[in-house]
Amino acid sequence: MTTTEPQPGRTVAEVVTDTVAALEGQRGALLPILHAIQETLGCVPREAVPVLAERLNLSRADVHGVVSFYHDFRAEPAGRTTVKICRAEACQAVGSGRLVDHVRDRYGMELGETRSDGALTVDQVFCLGNCALGPTVQVGARLHGRVDTAKLTDLIDSAMAS
Predict the structure, then answer these.
(1) Which domain covers residue 20, as residue numbers?
(2) Is 121 in contact with 79 (CB distance < 8 Å)?
(3) Would the pLDDT of 146 be above 70?
(4) Is residue 2 very low, low, confident or very high in pLDDT (cuts 50, 70, 90)?
(5) How far is CA 158 from CA 2, 13, 125, 153, in A?
(6) Quick one: which residues bind [2Fe-2S] cluster (predicted)?
(7) 143 CB contacts (<8 Å, ≥6 apart)?
(8) Does 86 belong to an annotated binding site?
């Protein structure tokens, strides 16, 4: 997992500047640039916002607005294992609330938190596009349908062990 620490000898500002230079010619470059920064640093650190604003001739408010609007952008790095629990109506109707309660009880975490050891982040999303197989969770990049609390435990524990 990447972190907010850039490669040795490189500051966040240097990473942002290099990323902007590589992608600024694209139409609507802000989103691809933000994704690239997050891929490199594990998040879009707050100190990246003014550098992006200056380099792209945008206001800080414009950049911050985009970063804060899209829930996939993070100000802090996610854990090594990331879990997203669908909270849309179809998944709620078949038990996603029990999954949230289970995460709270078993792992001592609320949605949106990362464990202090950096091992796990659990978030909510409002549709993973797998409504017929709810409740659905995403562990890393992989979707899992018809998840109950036992299966969720197996998925999380297996992912954290690997």
Answers:
(1) 12-69
(2) yes
(3) yes
(4) very low
(5) 21, 36, 22, 8
(6) 86, 91, 127, 131
(7) 128, 130, 136, 137
(8) yes
Q: Does the annotation place 43 within a ligand binding site?
A: no
Number of domains in the chain: 2
Per-residue pLDDT, 58: 96
Q: Does 131 appear as a known binding residue?
A: yes
88, 156: one domain: yes
> Is 127 flagged in the annotation as binding?
yes
Same domain, 95 and 54: no
Backbone angles phi, psi at 82, to 5 degrees: -115, 135
Indicate the range of 3-12, 29-38, 134-143 predicted with least confidence.
3-12
* H helix intervals, 70-161: 89-93, 96-107, 149-161
The average pLDDT across 107-134 equals 96
Residue 121: its H or E element: strand 120-125
Q: What is the pLDDT of residues 66-98, one digit of tens each?
A: 999 998 899 999 999 999 999 999 999 999 999
Question: Phi/psi class of residue 24: alpha, beta or left (left: φ > 0; alpha: ψ in -120 to 50)?
Answer: alpha
**Statement to judge: residues 91 and 143 lie in one domain:** yes
145 occurs within a structural domain: yes
Tell me the residue length of the chain: 162
**Token pair in block for residue 102:** 């289970």
Residue of 61, 31, 5, 64 whose CA lies nearest to 23: 31
